[in-house]
């Protein structure tokens, strides 16, 4: 029998599942890729075969023109790969279609989480705790200072600012995949049913979410309306458009940004953000540590962020852990 877990190897450009001759979230084109979700630091085109949830494959088709050589795997479905390796896709709670991948081989279980969060999100199924021997976890917000407030508080801040300035609009910078749709859905849940205006770059992804049953309510394009139409309304755009010439067509916009990084005041100042909204699609420090405790793996592998602090926490709590150094794993304006 081979040494324990010799069949799965962290390489600079991804997780290599050796007997199956496949890779998880590789940063370069490979013959066979298992993809956890559609963000560009985990998904890309050019693979010979791409295995992911139907939602992630639809997102990849829209973003990267990935169409041929795809295989859809639904949540809870197990497929058999080469080398007697099985893979099961389990909800990760990050964005639409996001999945943890449970790999089983030679009596050993490995969970690759991709990115995940533990908060309720009306746009995707919640994270499911899955016991395993090795737990490969992200650490985007792997520092104790990162504790995300309840999203209801952030929505209340946004709506209060809107109500206080009826002749302006509130322009919210939000990442086009996941964050924008979550903000819209949470506004609807908070009782805001007025039209929400979109930068043109947001439209196709919002429509894709609606195709998969996510109700976003009335949406309108900024380009189809006048300044007066948008007074007293919320406008959502990519973070890159917050302070560019495009925003000049808006009625006295109050700039806001939805991101876990808004916990850091300097980040808000750098972007000239008047209303920082601490809204993240990643687990915060308390959720990262709680998840490791609940999964209770024999060993945790830590990647995609602040590995050192989470590694130290594991050591202090007598939990085996190691930090991985994967190329191409960068946060996308969370």
Automatic annotation (TrEMBL):
It is an enzyme of class 3 (hydrolase). Its EC number is 3.1.-.-. SUPFAM superfamilies: Metallo-hydrolase/oxidoreductase. It comes from the Bacteria. The keyword Cell membrane does not apply. Keywords: Exonuclease, Hydrolase, Ligase, Nuclease. GO terms for molecular function: exonuclease activity; ligase activity; RNA endonuclease activity. The keyword Hydrolase applies. PANTHER family: BLL1145 PROTEIN, CLEAVAGE AND POLYADENYLATION SPECIFICITY FACTOR FAMILY MEMBER. This is Ligase-associated DNA damage response exonuclease. It comes from Altericroceibacterium indicum.
